[in-house]
Amino acid sequence: MSLKALRTLVTIARHGTFARAADLLSLTPSAVSLHIKTLEDELQVPLFDRSRRQVVLTEAGQLAVARAESILAAYDELADALANGPSLRGRLRLGAIHTVLARRLPKALVWIKAHHPQLHISVFSGMSAELARRVEDGELDAAITTEPVPPYPQSLNHTPLFEDRFWAIASPELAGQSLPELLASQPFLRFDKRAWAGRQIEQELRRQHLQVHEQMELDSQEALARMAAMGLGVAIIPMADDDLERLPPAIRLPFGEPQLVRRVVLLEHEKSQRRHLSAVLKTALEACDGPRSGPLPESRLESPALGR
Question: Which chain positions lie within coiled-coil regions (predicted)?
Fold first, then answer.
């Protein structure tokens, strides 16, 4: 009985089809079928009910999946323990949203390289919802995303890392106008609605009954902010205080009542066997955080003060 066959069984059970398991495990469909047939021959019981069109585990199959999960978890723990030895080593497949890739993550990776040279981190970019799905599917070990917004995979745990506040950005020539007036008279530069932060913005616009005239939709806070500052419209985005200071001159109005906050978190599967590695990443992010980064005090989160 091979560990590969057990991993194939668990992957089919989690994702519902032989084809999906083949994709996730980088196997051919025939190899997946062979793994299951070999298991059934060795155990001398059918693991799937083949009288149905959909993949359905038999009672024996359900028991086999539960035991296989325990065996695989024990093996992964043993492999990590032996690999770690006196110093931390291994490989972590990490997803990250663009904001983190552009600012905080590079410094953290340099810190990890200096302190744990045997720990190798592969980085993949994407939007929060996509990265969450990849963590759930086992394609990624962890991901740095916006705090989950329903609906999202319930099998994921998230650890807070830092917070950004939401701002409406516009040209300084429009100073003196309220947010409803700006949105009524200027094109709306929308933060991508597929992103979790974009959903937060859309929900708050609806809650306040604010109408917009959409001009464009992008997944880049900095690009939207610079376009708004140059007079192309009004953007509503989450940004860190130090990022705001680097923008061209612009007016900034707090968005939300109270001001909305985007919490950035570390997402992991509840059954992850790589938490000791992702914990190092969290330590590195904290070590590299500047004095303006990290969670904001509650009194600042609801500050009604206008930006410059």
Answer: none
pLDDT for 87: 58
Give per-residue pLDDT as tens, 267-306.
998 877 777 778 888 888 888 875 443 443 332 223 333 3
pTM over 0.70: no
In 3-state terms, what secondary structure has residue 90? strand
Q: Which residues contact 52 (CB under 8 A, 6 or more apart)?
A: none
Instruction: Using DSSP, state whether 178 is helix, strand or coil.
Output: coil
Q: What is the DSSP letter of 97?
A: -
Q: Which positions of the chain have pLDDT values less than 50?
A: 82-86, 291-308
CA distance 302 to 84: 44
* Token code pair at residue 32: 């997946």
Structural domains of the chain in order of their starting residue, each with its CATH number:
3-84 (1.10.10.10), 90-162+263-288 (3.40.190.10), 164-261 (3.40.190.10)
**Is 196 in contact with 278 (CB distance < 8 Å)?**
no
